[in-house]
Amino acid sequence: MLYTNTSSQDGPEGRVSSTIGAITQMMRSADLGPGDQLPSEATLSRDLNVSRTVIREAFRSLAAMRLIELSVGKRATVAELDYAALSPLIEHGVRTEQISVQQVYDVRRTIEQRTAALAALRRSDDQGREILAHATAMKVHADAPEKIMEHDLGFHLAIAKAARNPVFTLIVGAFEGVTRQTWPIGWRSRKDQAEQAIMLDLHEAIAGAIVEGHPQRAADLMAKHFDESIRALIVAGIS
Amino acid sequence: MLYTNTSSQDGPEGRVSSTIGAITQMMRSADLGPGDQLPSEATLSRDLNVSRTVIREAFRSLAAMRLIELSVGKRATVAELDYAALSPLIEHGVRTEQISVQQVYDVRRTIEQRTAALAALRRSDDQGREILAHATAMKVHADAPEKIMEHDLGFHLAIAKAARNPVFTLIVGAFEGVTRQTWPIGWRSRKDQAEQAIMLDLHEAIAGAIVEGHPQRAADLMAKHFDESIRALIVAGIS
DNA sequence: TTCTGCTATCCTGTATGACAGGTTGAGGCT
DNA sequence: AGCCTCAACCTGTCATACAGGATAGCAGAA
To answer: B73-79: which pairs have CB atoms within 8 A and are 24 or more residues apart?
Structure first.
């Protein structure tokens, strides 16, 4: 009495895929929002006529796509958007040489010109302060590249958040992993302190333009910043 | 003799997460590229001292993130970049009202201005022909909105591919699902044939600028196109 | 009566064994 | 040499079992 399942037709991609579809459709029908609970694995197993194994693999898939969140002992919940969701994919593309670092920086340049302009228009006071704080912190820790990098990443992410469009945040977050791997290379290629100071000053200038509400200036400075960063990476021999 | 596993420390996130890390690191160490095979589930189960269950859930997660590809009977292989990888995440964000349609279009406007300019600079002859073909096909099927939409989607994706930066393709592809759901609304809001003709002409003009190699003109026309599309959605009451 | 602590219950994480069915390569037959 | 068959391997799914986290409800103490 193995297959009692002749009634539900599996798509050509197997039961797990069908189940993923069924669960997403169920979320849609029930109009579940972030934080809402999904049925338990056992319940879904009964309702969809598949084993708990299949439900679990479907859950894992949905969790990997950041549509739901799993935690032990508790039911699965609908997930909030997470800016880190896309990082693994981009890192994989770069590692397998399907994406070059320069291509990543070209996209960042395009996106962040816009986030800088939007941030200048839409930032809250708190967001303005946070952006400025990251920029000044970068200068303070001038001898600790690790800390400079963290504040640099925080700087760009804070600008994306201040642009008040979560899709931009998502995209900027997607590049954080790759940036973390390539940043030290670019930093080392800026040989003397003068070159390093130029980069730090640029960050401060961008923060200033955003805080003072000059979108065009913020965008232009951001473009300049990326031109300079890309140049530094080329000097270091990054393709 | 249940837990023989005291040697390998599980991270605080459970064995599946640790195993995902171990597998990605293994791919890195072995320098696996797209198409290369991973070890079998049984082998990994032995090597990593976890059950096949854990290996399978880790594989499902990696497959959901599009880092690997699974197929029955064959071993898992390292995946090529797939422009459709991000669609589910964006759709989820829109469905749960964490992202608005206008925010999606603002990002598309930003990105596709750039892809249009790059396409004008870098397109191959074949790519130019394909872009133009989509634009003219949209006019031919003027009475079949379904077909117009498909050629519209193909048009924008072809431009992204002609820009020769897979990250742009990835991002443009991410919005295909959402666009497919909102496109008909925008189309219906263009009441008379004159308004519809404007949109079709714009596509043809963009294709022309790309084929003739005018990046600035292509970008400007693309911006105009999105301004018009966003206006049409606002008229239709899309927030 | 209200607060506290314990327990029964539900739920997820992991392991194990079993079997159906797809895939592939090694031999053997023509 | 070319083709065919089959055994070995591999993934997909199911059933069952148990450890341990989470939680509500009940009982006892203040």
So the answer is: B75/B37, B75/B38, B75/B39, B75/B40, B76/B37, B76/B38, B77/B34, B77/B35, B77/B36, B77/B37, B77/B38, B78/A96, B78/B27, B78/B32, B78/B33, B78/B34, B78/B35, B78/B36, B78/B38, B79/A92, B79/B34
Closest CA of chain B from A77, distance in Å: 13
pLDDT digits (tens, 9 = 90+) for A26-55: 999 999 999 999 999 999 999 999 999 999
Domains and CATH numbers, chain B: 15-78 (1.10.10.10), 87-235 (1.20.120.530)
Query: Which strand C nucleotides have any atom less than 7 A from protein CB atoms?
Result: 10-17, 19-24
Q: Which two tokens stand for residue A81?
A: 């958007």
Distance C11 C1' – A179 CA (angstroms): 40
SS3 A37: strand
Contact B61 A64 (CB under 8 A): yes
CA distances, A141 to each of A98, A144, A152, A225, B114 (Å): 35, 5, 11, 19, 35
Q: Which positions on strand D lie below 7 Å from a protein C-beta?
A: 9-16, 18-23
pLDDT of residue A190: 87
Q: Helices B215-235 & B101-122, crossing angle to 10 degrees?
A: 160
What is residue A79's DSSP assignment?
Answer: P
Q: List chain B residues with CB under 8 Å of A14.
A: 72
Which pLDDT belongs to residue A193?
A: 84
Over the stretch B74-94, which tens digit does the pLDDT of each residue have? Answer: 999 999 999 999 999 999 999
Q: Which two tokens stand for residue B65?
A: 């993130």
Q: What are the Cα distances from residue B233, in Å, to B22, B107, B185, B201?
A: 46, 15, 7, 19
